[in-house]
């Protein structure tokens, strides 16, 4: 069900393996190497000690934009990314990804974790250069212990705590591809909420007195902070398992390991005195740890002051691995491979742009112009406490011009709503989850945050769920629906229709599991709780190519309600 490899093995030199570890909602300050005595992260710290550190590395304020930039080397608005759910997280497919480049150069490629850059092909990771994908494509997940996941489009059940599970898959992937270069992308899902972590890690923090606090202590919730730090220590343990495996199998020397986060911390906690958190374009919302280790080619213990960002990772990795990219495709990011190898010492004065929610800030080598056009010397004032706009008015004005030009040329390229794709010519499986649907009538989402939500309160034949879709290639598809249903409500007849085609199926098997999640939460969640949904085949439907509205409704309702709905899975039955 994944993509076929279209690559040639390059034999001229021994290419380095590459592992990218991306954490979710971890702040710059959530590491002991950065001075946080509230936790211990020796394995992550060792990547910095044994490798190189960029002390001024910047990502975007939220998840999808950073991931899009990491994967393409382009600023996220240029890719059409404008949201973190309901299709706004999808990247323009005309821009190749990091995996595309390395796959064509003979690398085995895999991604295990939280994708968050599109679910339906051609946006799915299998259609963006990753031969193997295991995890979830949404922005967050409702249960971290053996939840519903997918493996190359097929619905599967996870095994154990998610981060442990993803790293297990990563180690297994490495074990199978030791004879060829590999690219392993590990976009881990913590410390993003819900705040779930195994007991062995939580027990270290439950009664711990925290020495490092957020500068405004009244704003910090210590229970949330403890949960986040426990999750980071679990990440550290998993990083230790991964790096130990590399060393035990003599893969350490020629493997590039990158560690970074996707945005600032998801709560007010100690972050080195930086201003802002996740969602903010200030330092605290966008400064990320960035460690890169490659014993065969990068001297250990190096610290670079050069301002670098998520847009720079792709061109830099291509440079380090000597992988060519098309000459006519310019990146927004820069190649810092020579600097990392010690072949270039001069700092390149450049600007990094941070943008979200109609707010834009600019970071140069020493200064930040914030979204309100206040100017700060970050080298001397990382907490952004002293506005230099009056004393440095010429610099401020020049950065305002630069910011406005970037907004006009880049930020205005956001594409807006597009239909969800179905029936890609190269892939048999397509999911349409509740996250991407619209409801009509009585039906409600289980939670205001769409990503892991389901639909409930379905009571009338006038109620419906719709998706704006584009069928990329006509064909016949089996449709599998995931649902729950109370005993007294069985017998409802469902109808799924698109243009002139429709199929109907009665729900005859009850399934009424409890909501889960609260029993494992270390802090009350804001996301939806989840439950165990089961599949039912609605039958086979023929879909004509083109755009239209897919409608799911009930034609008969013998009970009080119909079903609670989670997702549709389309399986192409005809020849590709």
From TrEMBL:
Highest taxon in the source lineage: Bacteria
CDD domains, A to Z: ARS_like (cd16146)
One Pfam family matching this protein: Sulfatase
Keywords linked to the UniProt accession: Calcium, Hydrolase, Metal-binding
Signal peptide: none
PROSITE patterns: SULFATASE_1
InterPro entries linked to this entry: Alkaline_phosphatase_core_sf, Sulfatase, Sulfatase_CS, Sulfatase_N
Membership in a protein family: Belongs to the sulfatase family.
Name by which UniProt lists this protein: Arylsulfatase
């Amino acid at each position: 069900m994944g993509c076929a490899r279209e690559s040639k093995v390059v034999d001229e030199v021994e290419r380095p393996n590459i592992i990218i570890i991306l954490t979710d909602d971890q702040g710059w300050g959530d590491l002991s190497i950065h001075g946080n005595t509230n936790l211990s992260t020796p394995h992550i710290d060792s990547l910095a000690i044994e490798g190189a550190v960029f002390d001024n590395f910047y990502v975007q304020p939220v998840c999808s934009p950073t991931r899009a930039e990491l994967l393409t080397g382009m600023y996220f608005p240029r890719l059409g990314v404008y949201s973190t759910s309901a299709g706004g997280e999808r990247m323009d497919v005309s821009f190749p990804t990091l995996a595309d480049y390395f796959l064509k150069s003979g690398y085995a490629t895999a991604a295990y974790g939280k994708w968050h850059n599109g679910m339906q092909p051609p946006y799915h990771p299998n259609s963006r250069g990753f031969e193997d994908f295991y995890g979830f494509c949404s922005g967050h997940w409702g249960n971290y212990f053996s939840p519903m996941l997918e493996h190359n489009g097929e619905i599967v059940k996870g095994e154990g705590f998610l981060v442990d599970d993803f790293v297990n898959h990563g180690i297994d992937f490495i074990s199978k591809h030791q004879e060829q270069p590999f690219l392993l992308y590990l976009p881990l899902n913590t410390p993003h909420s819900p705040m779930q972590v195994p007991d062995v890690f939580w027990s270290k923090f439950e009664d711990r007195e925290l020495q490092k606090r957020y500068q405004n202590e009244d704003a910090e919730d210590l229970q949330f902070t403890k949960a986040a730090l426990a999750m980071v220590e679990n990440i550290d343990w998993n990083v230790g398992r991964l790096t130990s495996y590399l060393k035990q199998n003599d893969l350490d020397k020629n493997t590039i390991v990158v560690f970074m986060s996707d945005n600032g911390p998801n709560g007010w906690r100690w972050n080195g005195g930086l201003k802002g958190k996740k969602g903010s374009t200030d330092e605290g919302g966008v400064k990320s740890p960035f460690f890169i280790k490659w014993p065969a080619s990068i001297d250990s213990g190096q610290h670079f002051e050069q301002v670098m960002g998520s847009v720079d990772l792709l061109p830099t990795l291509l440079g380090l691995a000597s992988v060519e990219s098309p000459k006519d495709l310019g990146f927004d990011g820069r190649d810092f491979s020579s600097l990392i190898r010690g072949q270039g010492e001069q700092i390149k004065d450049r600007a990094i742009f941070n943008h979200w929610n109609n707010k834009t800030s600019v970071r140069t080598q020493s200064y930040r112009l914030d979204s309100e056009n206040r100017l700060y010397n970050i080298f001397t004032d990382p907490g952004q406490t002293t506005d230099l706009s009056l004393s440095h008015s010429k610099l401020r004005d020049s950065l305002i011009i630069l910011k406005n030009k970037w907004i006009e040329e880049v930020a205005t390229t956001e594409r807006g709503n597009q239909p969800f794709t179905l029936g890609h010519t190269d892939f048999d499986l397509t999911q349409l989850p509740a996250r991407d649907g619209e409801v009509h009538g009585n039906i409600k989402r289980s939670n205001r945050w769409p990503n892991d939500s389901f639909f409930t309160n379905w009571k009338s034949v006038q109620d419906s769920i719709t998706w704006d879709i584009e069928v990329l290639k006509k064909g016949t598809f089996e449709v599998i629906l995931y649902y729950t249903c109370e005993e007294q409500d069985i017998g409802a007849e469902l109808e799924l229709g698109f243009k002139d085609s429709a199929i109907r199926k009665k729900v005859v098997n009850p399934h009424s599991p409890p909501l889960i999640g609260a029993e494992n939460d270390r802090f009350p969640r804001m996301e939806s709780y989840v439950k165990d949904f089961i599949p039912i085949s609605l039958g086979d439907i023929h879909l004509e190519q083109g755009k239209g509205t897919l409608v799911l409704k009930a034609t008969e309702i013998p009970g009080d309600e119909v079903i609670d709905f989670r997702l549709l899975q389309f399986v192409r039955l005809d020849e590709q």
